[in-house]
Amino acid sequence: MTDDDTQNSDTAGRSAASDTADEYVGAYDKLVRDDVPAVVRADGNRPVTRRVDGGEYERYLAAKLVEEAREYADAVETEGSGANDGSDSDESDDVLDELADVHAVLDAIVDESAFSQDDVDAREREKATDRGRFVDGVVLERIDAGE
């Protein structure tokens, strides 16, 4: 992203050379991959962006994680509802794409945090030792009172 991508919010959707509104494509206010503005320009549109850092960046990363996790869940649901024979399919590619997006956001969150990947991995192992992992597919439906 370059500085020429950054516009004042009151110029969003308007040509810099004119006071008349250009065709407005849409508003997003969401964190995107670093190369998305170049893709938008290549499509013949003008991205209006800004950079965030610190706590604001962490909040945008958290929102992006929720967005990508929902997209992953939707892809899994779509794959499960289709006639998937286990071979590579568009639905499987969608699941892999969304899983990669979740992973990329988690990597960015760790990079931005005060913790290293080793710290996160060590805590994951501690929690696995304490309470187990998520490999057996255990779903807790309820807890009944003991005798």
UniProtKB/TrEMBL annotation:
Annotated spans, Disordered: 1-23, 72-95
Under the heading InterPro entries, the entry gives: MSMEG_1276-like_NTP-PPase_dom
**Name of this protein:** Nucleoside triphosphate pyrophosphohydrolase
* Organism for this UniProt entry: Halorubellus litoreus
